[in-house]
Known about the structure:
The chain is mainly α. Helix content is 52%, strand content 0%. The chain has helices at 7-23, 29-43, 48-51. The radius of gyration is 25 Å and the shape is flat.
Amino acid sequence: MAQELSEKGLLRMEVEQLKKEARNPRAPISKTGKEIKDYVEAQAGNDPLLRGIPEDKNPFKEKGACRIS
Length: 69
């Protein structure tokens, strides 16, 4: 699609996208940072990277050793 548009058309699309982004409501980082921190701390108990995966639910657990007779 981008190949079919002229440079003017591409610039017009970029300006429209920038207008949309400028209309998005903004929040101060002091507020959003605290909200993100609280969310991460609340979800830490469910994070398998922090607490690990139970052995019985681990799909990557080795089933057994390879034995050659």
